[in-house]
Amino acid sequence: MNADLSIVHLIRDASPVVQGVMIILVIASIMSWSLIIGKSLQLRRAKRSAEDFEHDFWGSSDIAGTYSKLTMRRGTLDGLERIFEAGFSEFGRLRRKTSNDEIIMDGAGRAMRISLSREADTIETHLPFLATVGSISPYIGLFGTVWGIMNSFTALGNVQQATLAMVAPGIAEALIATAIGLFAAIPAVVAYNRFSTDVDRLLNRYENFSEEFATVLQRQAIRRSKGDESFED
C-alpha cells in the first residue's frame, strides 16, 4: 500500500486532466524561479551601479569629465548612468542652440524623465508574471483537486461497496495538484512583494538624483548667463 500511495505512483496514475494541471504548475514554477533568480541579480546589479555612480558623481566637481568617461562606454551604461547621460547630453545640445535657460532646462528635464521611464520599464519587466503565477496557481491546483475528487466519487458509483482503499488514491493524487499549486504560488508572491519594494526604492533613488542633477544644471545655466562657461558642480 505504501508503494501504491507514493507520490511518483500517484502522479503517474493520475487522470490526464490532473496530470495536465500538474505539468502546467511545474512549468509555471520553473519559469518563476528562473525569473526570481534573474530579477534578483538584475536589481542587485542596478543598486550597486547606482551607488557607484552617485559616489563618483558627487565626489567629482568635473561634470563634463564624468560625461566624457561615460560616452566612451555608452553601450554598457546602466540605470542612473543612462539618466545622467540623457540629461547632460540634451543640456549640452540645447545649450549650443539657444540661450533661453527655460528651454534648456525643460529639454534636459524631459530627456531625464524619458530615460527614467525606460529604466522603470526595464526593471519592472516580468513582475506581472510573478504576480499572475502567485494569484492563479492555487486556483489551477484547486481545479485539478476538484476534478480528481470528482472522478474518485464518480468511480464509486460503479461499485456496490465502497472502501477507503478505493477512494484514497484518487483523493491523494488530487491533493497533490493543490500542493504543487501552492509550491508555485508562495515563492512567486514572496518574490513579487520583495521585488516591488526594491523597484520602488530604486526608482525613487533615480527620481531623487534626477531632481538633484536638474538643480546642478540650473546652476550651470545661471553661470553661463553670467559668462562662466565652466562645468563644475
The secondary-structure element order is HHHHHHH
Strand content: under 5%
Q: What's the number of domains?
A: 1
Amino- and carboxy-terminal Cα gap: 77 Å
State the shape.
Answer: rod-shaped
Structural class by helix and strand composition: mainly alpha
User: Treating each run of at least 4 consecutive H or I residues as one helix, how many helices?
Assistant: 7
Nearest-integer average pLDDT: 84
> Sheet bearing the most strands, described?
none
Task: Name the poorly predicted regions.
Answer: none
How helix-rich are the residues, as a percent range? over 70%
Indicate the radius of gyration in whole angstroms. Answer: 29 Å
Q: How many DSSP E strands?
A: 0
Can you give a write-up of this model?
With 233 residues, the protein is an all-alpha fold. It has one domain. It is 82% helix and 0% strand. The chain has seven helices and no strands. Helix 2 runs antiparallel to helix 6, helix 4 runs parallel beside helix 7 and helix 5 packs antiparallel against helix 7. The radius of gyration is 29 Å and the shape is rod-shaped. The relative contact order is 0.17.
